[in-house]
């Protein structure tokens, strides 16, 4: 399957996914069609280009959401992706975008999406001193972190004594779990929640 990986920042999940495509659980199952960003200068996009992946960007700043998303859909379609894999893509997708890739847009959220949506999920876990949080991989619908859950993985936060430590533990789980979940999805091993 051809993956379009979308990001807006440092791209640690993109790096983990592309590594798994080259030499891990996604090898032979997935290929990287394009790495796309709505912010042309972010580190994640530069890292993808240095690894030799096709990259594309359209600057979202100052653009109206529907018009911007129409441009993004057209750009992504040039790369014929089977799945749109959001990896720190800091945009709410418009209905046009969702419809263009219906049922084929995947996101990772660093909390249980039934309990926490939107930004600052690790801050939320830290401030509430949760003993455990959950990483959620889900299909994207028109809401913010509301789509059907594909899989969740626990993060043990007992003894974590700072926000950076919470993030470190969470990201370590994210990096393994996103690729594992995509592999199971591509092998049609996942039952999708309704
Ligand atoms: C991750 O925590 C991801 O779960 C969230 O945004 C962050 C992106 O980090 N959606 P990175 O750019 O992949 O390092």
What's the rounded overall pLDDT mean? 97
Task: Just name the CATH architecture.
Answer: 3-Layer(aba) Sandwich
Oligomer: single chain
* Class per helix and strand makeup: alpha/beta
What is the topology, as strand order, of the major beta sheet?
3-2-1-4-5-6-7
Q: Which small compounds were modeled alongside the protein?
A: 5-O-phosphono-beta-D-ribofuranosylamine
Overview of the structural elements:
By secondary structure, this protein is of the alpha/beta class. It has a single domain (2-186), classed as 3-Layer(aba) Sandwich (Rossmann fold), CATH 3.40.50. The chain has 6 helices and 7 strands, in the order E-H-E-H-E-H-E-H-E-H-E-E-H. The chain has helices at 12-23, 43-50, 65-77, 95-100, 121-127, 163-186; strands at 2-7, 31-37, 55-57, 83-86, 105-109, 132-139, 149-156. Helix 1 runs parallel beside helix 6 (163-186) and helix 5 (121-127) crosses helix 6. The longest helix has 24 residues, at 163-186. It binds 5-O-phosphono-beta-D-ribofuranosylamine. One of its GO terms (biological process) is 'de novo' IMP biosynthetic process. It catalyses: N(1)-(5-phospho-beta-D-ribosyl)glycinamide + (6R)-10-formyltetrahydrofolate = N(2)-formyl-N(1)-(5-phospho-beta-D-ribosyl)glycinamide + (6S)-5,6,7,8-tetrahydrofolate + H(+). Catalyzes the transfer of a formyl group from 10-formyltetrahydrofolate to 5-phospho-ribosyl-glycinamide (GAR), producing 5-phospho-ribosyl-N-formylglycinamide (FGAR) and tetrahydrofolate. GO terms for molecular function: phosphoribosylglycinamide formyltransferase activity.
């Amino acid at each position: 399957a051809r993956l379009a990986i979308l990001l807006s920042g440092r791209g640690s999940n993109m790096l983990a996914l592309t590594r798994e495509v080259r030499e891990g659980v996604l090898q032979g199952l997935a290929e990287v069609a394009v790495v796309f960003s709505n912010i042309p200068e972010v580190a994640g996009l530069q890292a993808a280009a240095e690894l030799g992946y096709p990259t594309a960007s359209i600057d979202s700043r100052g653009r109206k959401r529907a018009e911007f998303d129409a441009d993004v859909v057209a750009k992504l379609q040039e790369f014929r992706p089977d799945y749109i894999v959001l990896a720190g893509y800091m945009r709410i997708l418009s209905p046009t975008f969702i419809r263009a890739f219906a049922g084929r847009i995947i996101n990772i959220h660093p909390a249980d999406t039934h309990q926490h949506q939107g930004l600052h999920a690790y801050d939320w876990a830290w401030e509430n001193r949760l003993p455990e949080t959950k990483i959620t991989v889900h299909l994207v619908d028109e809401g913010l972190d509301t789509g059907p859950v594909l899989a969740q993985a626990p993060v043990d936060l007992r003894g974590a004594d700072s926000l950076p430590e919470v993030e470190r533990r969470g990201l370590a789980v994210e990096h393994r779990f996103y690729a594992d979940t995509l592999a199971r999805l591509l092998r049609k091993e996942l039952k999708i929640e309704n």
